[in-house]
Amino acid sequence: xxxxxxxxxxxxxxRALLAGGPAIILVExxxxxxxxxxxxxxxxxxxxxxxxxxxxxGWPSDKAKSAASGADAVLxxxxxxxxxxxxxxxxxxxxxxxxxxxxMVRRQxxxxxxxxxxxxxxAAGETCGVLFGPERTGLVNDDVALADTVLTVPLNPAFSSxxxxxxxxxVGYEWFTAATTVAPEILRSGGxxxxxxxxLLNFFAHLEEALEISGFLRDPDKxxxxxxxxxxxxxxxxxxxxxxxxxxxVVTALAGPRRRGERP
Length: 264
Description:
The chain is α/β, with parallel strands linked by helices.
């Protein structure tokens, strides 16, 4: 006998599911229930690309499935990653959600502004995603440094705390209600696509290695902040793939020929 599909208020299985949109990346989510409710919020808003970085209770999760209340299609597609960098490697545009001042120079937008920008990116065939941190602590600075833009929800300054599903739902709702026919306004020149996060991270590794060899990053106490500041500079530039290749060449030329014993 065929299994009867569970009927949940607000669902209509006769209608086609909306899907697509930006990736939703949950970094070290603490509870399976929170993953499930975030997946439910995603499905409410027609989002289906869920990425999980080191969930504390492991994956897959029966608690997540139970809390998703029928959003099984989102959970079934969810992908697991060992670290944040791997989870965003294929993305060209990345937003990091945070309410705290990170003392980094970053563009800051509301969910509504971010949704309009992401519509532009998607209309131009470019990938984008939104980072959400652990429920208790939020994103660490190194994860925020991967993003081009900080996304902050304007709420009561004395009480702006949101649970994970609430945060995902606000971002997803703004995406869902944003105009779908937005003309791309982002400068695109020379036919070169925006660099992906993987390409940027490869360049950062090349640059930082050269700076370490030269002695610029000699102070171990100052190094983490200097590296984040340099990465912020290039993130704000929104480099294209061609520009990243050019920058690789610049670093190689400035570093000069390698001496024997230096790292490759």
